[in-house]
Amino acid sequence: MKIVIAGAGDVGFHLAKLLSYESQDIFIIDFDGEKLDYINNHLDVITTKGDATSISLLKEVGIGNADLLLAVTESQNTNFTISVIGKALGAKKTIARINNPEFLKNDEINFKDYGVDFMISPEELAADEIKMLLKQSSFNDTVAFENGLFNVMGTSLTHKSPIINLTVKESKEKFNMIDFITIAIKRENIAQTIIPRGDTVYKIKDQVYFSIPNYSIDKLYAIIGKKHIAIKNVMVLGGSSIGIKTARNLCLDNFNVKLIEKDKNKALFIAEELPNTLVINGDGRDIELLEEESIREMDAFIAVTGDSETNIMSCLVAKSKGVKKTIALVENMDYINISQTIGIDTLINKKLIAASNIFRHIRKGEILALANLHNIDAEVFEFEVQPNAKVTKQLIKDLKFPREAVFGGVIRNGKALMSFGDMQIQSGDKVIVFCLPEAIATVEELFN
After folding, report:
1. Which of 89, 191, 365, 434 has its Cβ near the most Cβ atoms within 10 Å?
2. What pLDDT is attached to residue 390?
3. What is the model's pTM?
4. Contact, 320 vs 157, CB < 8 A?
5. Cα(240)–Cα(234) distance, rounded to whole angstroms?
6. Hey, is 10 helix, strand or coil?
7. If you write DSSP's letter for every residue of 253-287 in order, what string do you get?
8. Are the CB atoms for 156 and 185 separated by under 8 Å?
9. What's the total number of domains in the chain?
10. Is residue 202 in some structural domain?
11. For 83-128, what is each residue's pLDDT tens digit?
12. How far apart are CA 179 and CA 417, in angstroms?
């Protein structure tokens, strides 16, 4: 598969990094020579310095036989231009990164007619993820499939969890009235993600990911030893586009939202845009201000300023004041793996979320959804099973399914089903699979 990426920023780099493991033909175009030098030193891809809106340059990298063109520069207008030109020159599929959410909700203009097959807004995706995390507040990572029929939910185990020191098999026997599958464990001081087997033992501080049908979510709290935290009062730090989108989304769901923005003009603008949000003009790093604005009465604190360190530190302050749920936006992807160790519930990176969303267009097979989990070097897929796919030929226990992957559940005729060994996958099923990088090609082959 030949893929051309326009833009060597965080989104472009992360996409190239994921793809470079899989023998894809990847070409990256950017003006910034330093970024390209860094990519050349770390990834096995082909880089070209220049303007990706240049017709001659796009021809030079062979855009005419490209399977996919990803326009992910910082400029929305540039991404549109690149997509339109690339499509006209023969690119089979184009994806443009955008900032304006109006384009995603528009019914009047068919952007495919102009050469843009798909659009993605990192800010919109990040705001949606924040809302989901607040709704499942005892978990620090959550992904919904098929409108929540199946969910992948992650949490850190404490001494209060009754499954501590039990094996996976023993925990299933003890809680046989609850439908759940443990699909991954991230353990302190162990680099690689653990794909659990029956004899895998749960330990304190394990970051555990469960795949669970919607009807069992409330029961899962008994397994993790936590109670559902009702989130009602939310403080948002930062009037960034994500801050505004998050506040708007939460107000629509009847959360009480306070938003703090230090720029006076921006605060006034936001107050006009969000009449149901209490907007405060002030510096969110000022502890006295946070106390004055009743930080101790907040159920959740969301820091989405443009400065990662400010977001992290302010969340730590909020946590020290008794706030139940803290979420910080970070730009540096290296921070993502340290959220639990520093005491913040969840760190999110909008570019990582965007790259994950784009990534499903690159995969083989009929992939309906794909997600990268925080702290985990693997992916969760939702496949739609095609007629005569190899995965339909035998019972799950008889399939030569790689040990680096695990079934997370099946959705059949609109119903969530557990994917245990004696099940046979059928054509038309929607199947959730958790997979480490080294097993992706094998899993995709089974679903082809």
Report:
1. 434
2. 92
3. 0.73
4. no
5. 16
6. helix
7. TT-EEEEEES-HHHHHHHHHH-TTSEEEES-TT-H
8. no
9. 4
10. yes
11. 999 999 999 999 999 988 778 877 788 899 999 999 988 888 888 8
12. 9
What is the reported pLDDT for 374?
62
Q: How far is 134 from 325, CA to CA, in rounded Å?
A: 8
pLDDT of residue 129: 85
pLDDT tens digits, residue range 267-300? 999 999 999 999 999 998 899 999 999 999 999 9
Q: What percent of the chain has pLDDT over 90?
A: 57
Q: What is the CATH number of the domain that holds 432?
A: 3.30.70.1450
- Residue bearing tokens 């749920």: 325
Q: Report whether 332 contacts 113 (CB < 8 A).
A: no
Amino acid, single-letter form, for residue 245:
K
Yes or no: say if 343 and 322 are a contact pair by the CB < 8 Å rule: no
Tokens matching residue 30 = 């950017």
Under 8 Å between Cβ of 147 and 135:
no
- With a cut of 90, say whether residue 228 has pLDDT above it: no
Give me 82's structure tokens: 């690149």
Q: In what order do the strands lie in the sheet with 300-303?
A: 278-281, 256-261, 233-237, 300-303, 325-329, 346-348
Backbone CA torsion sign across 416, 419, 423, 428:
positive
Which two three-digit tokens encode residue 231? 């989130």
State the residue range of the domain holding 156. 142-224
Amino acid letter, 111: F
Residue 354 confidence (pLDDT): 80
Q: Which of 224, 256, 288 marks a domain boundary?
A: 224
Residues 88 and 163 in one domain: no
The CB-side HSE value for 347 (13 A sphere, CA atoms) comes to 26
Q: What is the pLDDT of residues 142-182, one digit of tens each?
A: 888 887 889 888 898 999 999 999 999 999 999 999 999 99
